[in-house]
Amino acid sequence: MPLLEVNNLKQHFISKKGFLSEKRVVKAVDGVSLKVEKGKTLGVVGESGCGKSSLGRSILRLVQPTEGSVKFQGKEVTDLNALEMKKLRREMQIVFQDPYASLNPRSTIREILEAPLKIHNVGNKKERKKVIEELVERIGIRKDQLNNYPHEFSGGQRQRIGIARALALNPKLIVADEPVSALDVSVQSQVLNLMLELQQEMDLSYLFISHDLSVVQHISDQVAVMYLGKIVEFGDVERIYNHPMHPYTQALLSALPIPDPKQKRERIILEGDLPSPINPPSGCPFHTRCPFATKECKEVVPALEEKTDNHFAACIHI
Amino acid sequence: MLLDVKDVSLSLKREGKYSKILDQVSFHVNNGETVGIVGESGCGKSMTALSLMRLLPDKAKLDGEIRLEDELISSYSNRKMQKIRGNQASMIFQDPLTSLNPLHTVGKQIEESLLLHTSLSKQERRKRVIKLLNDVGLPRADELIDEYPHQLSGGMRQRIMIAMAMACEPKLLICDEPTTALDVTVQAQILELMNELKERTRMGIIMITHDLGVVAEVCDRVIVMYAGKVVETAPVEELFENPKHPYTKGLMQSIPKLGIRKQMLGSIAGTVPSPENMPAGCRFADRCSQAMDVCKTNVPQMTQVKKNHKTACWLYENKGVKKDAAAGSEQPKTAFYL
């Protein structure tokens, strides 16, 4: 049984401009199904506005999903009541993108790390102190820095504190929403290394959301490529990066600048930008930019199908 | 040589005290060449660009010589500088949304530099703007010219910024993280456009970025900066193949590479020192795994390690030759207050 199983998840937001104007529905996540295995990492990549962050949030029920099912360890999450949900949150935690905005500037690191323990009534004061001290030691911050405030730390240190907070309750799943995007490369690598080490030590599962293809490749076991609220390709990381099937994945990978000046490649340059999710194109969401689009693509919504062994793509031409 | 920057230092006033943001930055740009400036946040790469254009905050202290086409523009008055900006040298900023004025149409904003620097008539200007919009690959230019920035997507806005910068056919184009705010597929479009424009106009480009991938794709030569100093400079292939400075090496090792998975990446311990607390010797010494005693006390000078490849590191410095060069070279050539 996979640790997390998501089926046909939809997250629609209603956007209403003005008093008399009609309601418009933004389909941020539109029928996503995926699985995360225990101790593994599923990377979710896509460009801005593709719905990857909304996906993470609705899986954790930080926003109530519109439709679909989220099963965590076989248990349906979407219809739990508040009390049951609170219990479950110990098992699934989140790390946010911006380490400057996600730590309360008026709390010390000790208070920040103690908060989840207090909320879930873990141990007494003394035990909590021990847990916190072990935690900061694990993430490479000195014990005597515990009474410092977030502004006294660098971006990388803050992100590690964010990770420590997520780890405080010994969760099984961590949703990491662009955890290294705000960091410089040398610091980014420290955080990635920490995440990999922690995964091995604690058998953690990650849902790793990022727009950075090389980071996702580095940390993931499986990858889901999202476009306009839908998964267009899904499979093992080697398959996706070495033999991308969907035209969008191919274009995305070919657009990635490679830090090697000797490697000159044929680029697939896509026309235009991502269409608005308020008014998504009919049929295949990618047909407006797809170099191989035919008449059929405008009419038929392609389903995510297994094309080869454990490699799924949503395209009628494959 | 199109641009020659010699020993440029910049101090900014912070909390009543001057702190040195740039320290003796020297480099040059040739016609038709793209020079990358890389480094992590706070290394002074953007301030270098702003110093070249003299778009500095109040009470900035700038020393050194900047020559554009053999004109010593660092001695120019503000008024004279205005004739340069947007004309011979122009700049593209990172965030196209905040750098466009939401209250004016796209056409009006592109037209502005034509109005300032040329004597074209209204109709001629409009024609030229439409041509510029076509040149940067925007569709339906004759309608777009009367639209506002909020009606356009991020990629289109960045194209508008490029059209603005290109309006007077500058000799030098400074791009400060032009694609950082964009998605990869859009980034690929913009980088291609910039390469195309460079081929066509033979202008020199300074590409400021933290993304080594972008550097590898578009630059001919690279300058690596750390804590306000240039630490290494080399042609792009040489730099990636044979990085010399421990900081450059550290940067290269910390980027995830395609095909290698779940392995520990190299990283650089510690953080960048703040301008108020710069170490006496090499600024990277505290984070460097190969630091020696001399690194803590003496500033390394740029040393040639190979043809066109220079680095400032004691590992490569001719032992004992220029040990106290740092102390003797602190002579500001020109200074002015803004």
TrEMBL record, chain A:
It comes from Exobacillus caeni. SMART domains: AAA. Keywords: ATP-binding, Nucleotide-binding, Transport. GO terms for molecular function: ATP binding; ATP hydrolysis activity. It comes from the Bacteria. Residues 9-253 form the ABC transporter domain. PROSITE patterns: ABC_TRANSPORTER_1 (PS00211), ABC_TRANSPORTER_2 (PS50893). Belongs to the ABC transporter superfamily. This is Dipeptide ABC transporter ATP-binding protein. InterPro entries: AAA+_ATPase, ABC_transp_ATP-bind, ABC_transporter-like_ATP-bd, ABC_transporter-like_CS, Oligopep_ABC_C, P-loop_NTPase. It holds the Pfam family ABC_tran. GO terms for biological process: peptide transport; transmembrane transport.
Automatic annotation (TrEMBL), chain B:
Pfam families: ABC_tran (PF00005), oligo_HPY (PF08352). SUPFAM superfamilies: P-loop containing nucleoside triphosphate hydrolases. Belongs to the ABC transporter superfamily. The keyword Acyltransferase does not apply. GO terms for molecular function: ATP binding; ATP hydrolysis activity. It comes from the Bacteria. One of its GO terms (cellular component) is plasma membrane. It comes from Exobacillus caeni. It is found in: Cell membrane. The keyword Nuclease does not apply. One of its GO terms (biological process) is peptide transport. It is a peripheral membrane protein. InterPro entries: AAA+_ATPase, ABC_Ni/Peptide_Import, ABC_transporter-like_ATP-bd, ABC_transporter-like_CS, Oligopep_ABC_C, P-loop_NTPase. Keywords: ATP-binding, Cell membrane, Membrane, Nucleotide-binding, Transport. This is ABC transporter ATP-binding protein. Residues 3-252 form the ABC transporter domain. Its main location: membrane.
